[in-house]
Amino acid sequence: MSRFFATGSDSESEESSSADEITPKATGTTFNKNKEAFTTNLILCCPLRFRFEELTNIIKTIRNAMKIRDMSKCLEEFEQLYRAFLKSKTIVDKEGVPQFYIRLLADLEDYLNQLWEDKEGKKKMNKNNAKALSTLRQKIRKYNKDFETEIASYKEVLNSSTNVISLCRCQDEESESDDDEDSEDWGSDSVDSGGESEDNEGAAASLAVVFLKKYKDGRRKRHKKIEQVEEEVDEDGEAEEGGWEKVKGGVPLVKEKPKMFAKGTEINSAVVIKKLTEILQARGKKGTDRAAQIELLHALSGISNENNLGQGILVKIKFNIIASLYDYNTNLAAFMKPEMWKKCLECIDELLDILFENNNIFIGENIAEDSENLAISDQPFRVRGCILTLVERMDEEFTKIMQNTDPHSQEYVDNLKDEGRVCGIIDRLLQYLESKGSTEEVCRIYLRRIMHTYYKFDYKAHRQLLPWVTGPFSEQDQEESEGEDSAIIMDRLCKFIYAKDRTDRIRTCAILCHIYHHALHSRWYQARDLMLMSHLQDNIQHADPPVQILYNRTMVQLGICAFRQGMIKDAHNALLDIQSSGRAKELLGQGLLMRNMQERNAEQEKIEKRRQVPFHMHINLELLECVYLVSAMLLEIPYMAAHEFDARRRMISKQFHHQLRVGERQPLLGPPESMREHVVAASKAMKMGDWRTCHSFIINEKMNSKVWDLFPETQCVREMLVRKIQEESLRTYLFTYSSVYDSISMETLSEMFELELPTVHSIISKMIINEELMASLDQPTQTVVMHRTEPTSLQNMALQLAEKLGGLVENNERVFDLKQGVYGGYFNRGTRTRP
Q: Per its UniProt record, what PANTHER family does this chain match (predicted)?
């Protein structure tokens, strides 16, 4: 095997190359006799060195990428390594596979398997890294099958490294007593041997003495290799017998309690403030340990309490502790660790306790640092800082934690329990600012409280309004009823913002949240009137993306509310823009569409992910689509029956027509499975006037579990749907079969569709008034007399054909006249002037 491939480090290859340079000089006779052979060896060394450097450079890049978990870079460099290895195939076949190449393949496979088993780490990867990890793992497993023997032998050597370490230790202990004498003897021998090699040029074997008889250096290298193997084998830094301690940079990794002040220093306000300034000066600098800074600030807070230096200094330190906790993560997209999050909540609670207990503390951003009063002798205390900004940042951190947690795990539920504590902190700050804050600050904290209330359904208030709940409440229910209703809270907070706020954004968000809350609790008319009076739909396109997402959520909730109230046309109009776009998931801030991943770069993707709504605030997309399709069915099917032969009829819902076409193209029609198939099957039944079949497709066990049971008033929604299906099926039946009847009894229609006679009378009267049905009502006999003014099917087809032929003739004449330079065609021929 070539010496270039037999070694894995650049230092050993340089020693080998230095030996090559000395060999021809030391054996001059051999060089003269074998000049051609030596020249051949030099020629062979060039491609070997070139291939060696190319492979080692790529391997170095791969190992660097492994350290930072850059899987995309690992995949890219592995493909380059594969191509570079193929180029050196001829040399590998002659010399053998390099050991460093086998070592990389084994280490890379183990590394990828470790990452693959780390489920939490995989979830934190971005999409590109996760995809690269899967691809690279498959490739390396397939590629390593060609080197199974070499990799197995390498792992055996690695596993036996512990025995090698113990053997080397025994040899070192035996040679310690003679270390000094041997070093002197070996040093003289090396010099003598070097002189002999220069005198005897033909003795090429004497060169080995120069490089072999360095036992002292050899022992150092051996010690270095022992330490390297120990670090790889024993990750905890302790051998089984020795109990060694892992060190970093020559310093033991032992956490010592930081010494704040020198021994004997008198602790007073000036000393503590000076120490606080020193700690804050290191904030943000490169190399600063953020965790150590937080510990120093906590220690300084304890010292301040022990020496009773006053609440002013304590508030100042608490402000900086909370700010340091927020600065712990430099990346804006990263969320706080659980231990840091708990510390943050505790510090904010402690800070609020101090502010409530001491009325002589004034805080604000407008207080300059030079004018601060922190000493216990200077009262009232004046501290620079903004508690509102800290609480707003805490709320944002809570949102990021919920965004980055798996919504289907128990961890998400545990994190969601912290929302009660977050709302409690907001309520406490709200009370504090109502007495000491400005109007702008009160509006800001009111909006934070609104954002935690608007999307929650008030089951307590809803249960009290139910007509069948008339019995006495339990003790728990009585305690809950004593609390303020969410509608009253929202009304009070929002009206204050409407009157006092000077910024459009806070007012806009408050209006949208208020509308959403009204719609969620089925207050349709209040929600509709507030939306129309605000005129937000006129200029919402100029708002920032989070406000647009809130507007989309509000419109969707408004449409669902209209559907529950039986306002089918209003529900369809409210949901039309969201559903017709095909991007409901993205417009509602509930995820990113895969088809748009190519249209955004990595930075834009991170920004859009930060705008996503937490999972517990999501709107059910299947329920939304079902409400839209059912509304479209109740509007579209009667319209299609009334304008069956109208060539110029318009489509009310393109998405609904698309679902109908998809259902018609299916070669085999089986029982419906999905929600869409149920709606399509119900539409076909309604088109024939069969309301019972339509009802069975819309309301059944499968649809109840998927959609209708998700509504708070499930039974009312089902009854409303049955009634709407009966009424629209009656209208569709009359449109479809009016040409067949001369007259039809309203009692018969009432029995067919199971509707009350006044309801049937009302529906038919509206159709006649709107000129949708050409008929008249005979009151004595309670019959509908049809008027033969509608053309028959054959006549409708003939009219359509005549209209199309007329358009075709007109188009042909227009093209012909354009060529002749005269416009008017056949109809203007008599007015043409002859040349």
A: EUKARYOTIC TRANSLATION INITATION FACTOR 3, SUBUNIT 8 EIF3S8 -RELATED (PTHR13937), EUKARYOTIC TRANSLATION INITIATION FACTOR 3 SUBUNIT C-RELATED (PTHR13937:SF0)
Our CA dihedral for 488, 491, 492, 496, rounded to 10 degrees, sits at 180
Task: Kindly give, in sequence order, each residue whose CB lies less than 8 Å from that of residue 525, ignoring residues fewer than 6 positions away.
Answer: none
Task: Say which DSSP state 241 is in.
Answer: T
**Rounded Cα distance, 305 and 267, in Å:** 11
List, in sequence order, every beta strand (DSSP E) within 77-176.
Answer: none
Residue 691: φ, ψ to 5°? -75, -30
- pTM of structure: 0.65
pLDDT digits (tens, 9 = 90+) for 473-521: 444 444 444 557 889 999 999 999 999 998 889 999 999 999 999 999 9
Average pLDDT over residues 393-403: 93
DSSP string spanning 517-535?
HHHHTT-HHHHHHHHHHHT
pLDDT level of residue 595 (50, 70, 90 thresholds): low
> Cα–Cα distance between 569 and 635 in angstroms, integer?
7
Looking at residue 9, its pLDDT comes to: 43
Mean pLDDT of 572-592: 91
Residue 262: half-sphere exposure toward Cβ, Cα within 13 Å: 1
Residue type, 345: L
What per-residue confidence (pLDDT) applies to 327?
Answer: 86
pLDDT for 39 equals: 41
Q: How far apart are CA 61 and CA 56, in angstroms?
A: 9
> CA-CA distance, 352 to 315, in Å (whole number)?
10
> Where are the alpha helices (H) located in 307-457, listed in sequence order?
311-326, 338-357, 387-403, 410-416, 418-436, 439-451
